[in-house]
Amino acid sequence: MYVIPTLAIIHAIFSDYSYPFITLIGSIVSVACHFAFRLDQEISSLFFNSFRDARSILIIIGHWALHAFGIISLTELKSSLNTGLLLLLVPLPAAFYILTSTFSDPTKIRND
Question: Where are the transmembrane segments (predicted)?
Answer without folding.
Answer: 17-37, 57-75, 81-100
